[in-house]
Amino acid sequence: MYDIAIIGAGIAGSYIARELTRYKLDVVLLDGENDVGNQITMANSAIVHGGYDAPSYKFKGRFNAPGNIMYEKICEDLDVPFKQCGSLVVAHNEYEMATLHELYQNGLKNGVPGMRIIFKEEVHQMEPNLNPDVCGALYSPTAGVVSPFELCVHAAENAVDNGVTLKLNHLVTDIKKLDDSFKITTTAGDIEAKKIINAAGVYADDIYEMVGEPYFELLARKGNYFIFDKEAGSLVNKVIFPCPSKKGKGILVAPTVHGNLLIGPDAEPVDKGDVSTTSERLDYIKENALKNVPSIPMNKIIRSYAGLRNTPVKASFTTTDGDFILEESPVKGFINVAGYESPGLTSIPAVAHYVVEEIVVPMFPDIEENHEYNPKVRKHLRFEEMSDAEKEAIIKEDPKYGKVICRCETITEGEIIDVIHRSAGARTVKAVKKRSRAGMGRCQGGFCSPRVVEILARELNCTLEDIMYDQQNSAYILSGKTKSAAEEVL
Amino acid sequence: MIYDVVVLGGGPAGLAAAVEAKKDGANDVLIVERDRELGGILNQCIHNGFGLHTFNEELTGPEYAERYIKQALELGIPYYLNTMVLDLIDNGEIKTIHVINEENGYMTIETKAVVLTMGCRERTSGAIGIPGYRPAGVFTAGTAQRFINMEGYMPGKEVVILGSGDIGLIMARRMTLEGANVKAVCELMPYSNGLVRNIVQCLDDYDIPLKLSHTITFIHGKDRLEGVTVAQVDDRLKPIPGTDEYIPCDTLLLSVGLIPENEITRNAGIEMDRRTNGPVVGELRQTSVPGVFACGNVVHVHDLVDFVSEESVLAGKGASMYIKGQLDSENTFTTTNGDGIGYVVPQQVAMKNVDETVTFYMRVRQVFKDKVVNAYIGDQLIATKKEKKLLPAEMVNFKIAKDELAKYPSGEIRFVVEDAKK
User: Fold this and answer.
1) Yes or no, beta carbons of A395 and B100 under 8 Å apart
2) A442 CA to chain B: closest CA distance, Å?
């Protein structure tokens, strides 16, 4: 029996798992997917927000700015790329300027440091490629960009290194409340745990309804995005937001932490699981992004994708409308971390601390601290970021770092082998891509994917046909041997 | 040591350039190849049809490559395999090339001249932005070709191909021969982007339908591809409502264009041509940086390897002339693309370097019948090239005699598609 089962190994579940290892608890981290961080964490804006948007009385307003402040340290500990590049919310007219002043005032209440309202000349000095009509902006220097999936992967890795059991391909199908525990039925066997933390993203309402009466509902809202070649990566230096409206933060234009350019997202209610892009929506994003940055080179697009937000909607007897749901539910011992949409990524260090210290710890009166807790992951060597001397040294130490597999991103075989063998390591081509960036570049895996399949098969001791792109069994890459190759075997 | 000529790439362009440079008097020539063998993309092109122009016979890709590899070996040209170029730095007379491999680690190679022959890559589904899901089972045609011909594995069984580029057509036949069911080849344009002979030999002979003016409007399947929605497009290339057709399939191959791989070129500050996506080059394929040459698909995408070899001989000769101090750097002519022409290579001509003729390579923008390509300097018509049919898929190869060009002191040579009789 586990002390705690966390359902969902996205950024919320993985990070809370890591936070729990500060204590001597037996924790299992469950996910229905074939990798951690495979849904919302994999497809979002990748922004670490300043924290001026949400009102201070909401969790969103309360945890955003403190989460932001914690980022530098956690990204150092977890060896995750993070750039505090700052953000601008831009205004085109006086009405929008008035909104910026409101945001500024709200930011002060939320404890956002260093914000300034700036005017035309300074805005265009900071961002020469903005639309000349932009007349002012709210500058928030603490905002930044991060790699959300690398953060999730390394949080999960660190959690496992500190003793958490990770179980992938364990899709939860039923939960039974027993006297002092829960019996969780999954597609890969039953699991018993004293407490449950429900961090199942867009499915968190469905999970809760397995044990309790519905008191919230999650609406899946889809956002489409484009990623551009690194050639377009320096078009803007900061995250550029339009002036927000009732509909949300609007279409942003941002550098990514790896040097690409990102635009998106729109917001459209969809069925859960619908992450398809549509041409109308993609056109809408282009059109709106161009309003603030007119020179975006649309011929440098290398990828479009769509992800889901899980927006909590008001149900009959609680008003959680528009905020994170972070609480022990009416079912004792069952904790909901739900409705965890933006600024969830930014808030997670602060939210995880809150969930563990304020909700979990009081549930275990005899809880002990884990003195062996190590907040750091093993260094993730990234060849491309090394100096010439470091490159020389690492190849001498391990010649596999001298073999480039992904040409576009300069990812070596050494790095790919490393991400396969780390805790919570890669087992699929997408998992390798997520962790090492092999296949993230302009050729989108055209050259490297056959090599990555080969390396995975060799390192995991299986055949090329066993290697999946993503989901177990269903996302196969190769359907079998060719006739001539099959004959050779005979 | 300081090399005379270092060739970046051991494919058909690199091999021909290295061989020619060595034959023409460059002593220390080196080939740097990122893959595990010489020959480049030809190694996975196991179909025949290569070398008709060069050798007057039909060879397979590996056989064609082998002829040049043999020459390179006979000439004693050294090469590095599995070696990646990280950077090319121009320090004037000496260029330094930063490379890595497993055996030698991190090396800095010094050379007087460089020939860039990095080839090209395939345009991806991301780049053309096909809406829908992003499942396994969507491959560029070249990646599928590598899986089948090099690794011995099939990427799927029920296939739709988007784009009628040559690799897509070749793969339609290849997958059919391997027992797959190729259901359709969809081409956005009203004409094919592949060679006529490939349409006949790879599609018609196997009853594979070619759907011109069609595109894919949705990719279905969350994990593995389950099907595609295909629709007809109007003359603005927009899908026509009501023409949607769902085709179940587990594999989608993309053959939607090739892009020269010029990251090293750009980083070295070499002037680029937006029309070709390659460097601006002269008659001996010299780039804007003295001592750096480029040839093959890195300059412009070819449809026949024979012309890659032909062009690469020029670059090899240019490099050897450069190190011997025989290369003239004064450009006499520039070239430009007029009506109906997409690009022209070379973009510059230095007449003192020309032997007897200059061959201008170009592509037309659309299908033309009963038209000619005319070359003008100012208002003066200097040469005409007649073709029965001008196709975007087939590069026009336009030779003009030195004597003809020598009548003009300088200027811009403009190529235009015009009516046959004028």
Assistant:
1) yes
2) 8
What does the block give as tokens for B192?
A: 């094919």
Structure token pair of residue A457: 């098969």
Of B105, B146, B151, the CB nearest to A392: B105
Mean pLDDT of chain A: 95
Q: What is the pTM of this model?
A: 0.95
Q: Name the band, by pLDDT with cuts 50, 70 and 90, for residue A317.
A: very low
| B238 inside 8 A of chain A by CB | no
* pLDDT of amino acid A277: 95
| Residues 6 or more apart in contact with residue A408 via CB below 8 angstroms | A440, A441, A442, A443, A447
- Supply the pLDDT for residue B422: 54
Task: Please return the burial class of B369, using the count of CB atoms within 10 Å of its CB with bins 0-12, 13-18 and 19+.
Answer: exposed
Residue A124 is a catalytic residue: no
For A2-363, CATH number? 3.50.50.60
pLDDT in tens, A17-71: 999 999 999 999 999 999 999 999 999 999 999 999 999 999 999 999 999 999 9
Give the integer Cα–Cα distance in Å for B373 and B338. Answer: 10
Match 């500050």 to its residue by tokens.
Answer: B269
In sequence order, which ranges of A172-278 are alpha helices (DSSP H)?
204-208
Distance of CA A380 to the CA centre of its chain: 18
- The partner residues of A137 in beta bridges, in order of sequence, read A90, A118
For A444, name the nearest residue in chain B, comparing CA atoms only: B124
Q: Which residue in A436, A421, A431, A344 sits closest to A382, CA to CA? A: A436
Question: Are the C-beta atoms of residues A195 and A4 closer than 8 Å to each other?
Answer: yes
Distance between CA atoms of residues B186 and B237, nearest Å: 13
Structure tokens belonging to residue B58: 């039909």
Q: Say whether A385 sits in a helix, a strand or coil.
A: helix
The fold for domain A383-466 equals Arc Repressor Mutant, subunit A (1.10.10)
Are residues A469 and B143, on separate chains, in Cβ contact within 8 Å?
Answer: no
Task: Tell which of A263, A284, A304 to mutate to test the B interface (max B CBs under 10 Å).
Answer: A304
**Which of the residue ranges A31-45, A319-333, A375-389, B388-402 would you say has the lowest mean pLDDT?**
A319-333
Coil, strand or helix: which one is B317?
helix
Instruction: For chain A, give every domain's residue range.
Output: 2-363, 383-466
Q: What is the pLDDT of residues B73-106, one digit of tens each?
A: 999 999 999 999 999 999 999 999 999 999 999 9
Query: Residue A304 and residue B126: Cβ atoms within 8 Å?
Result: yes
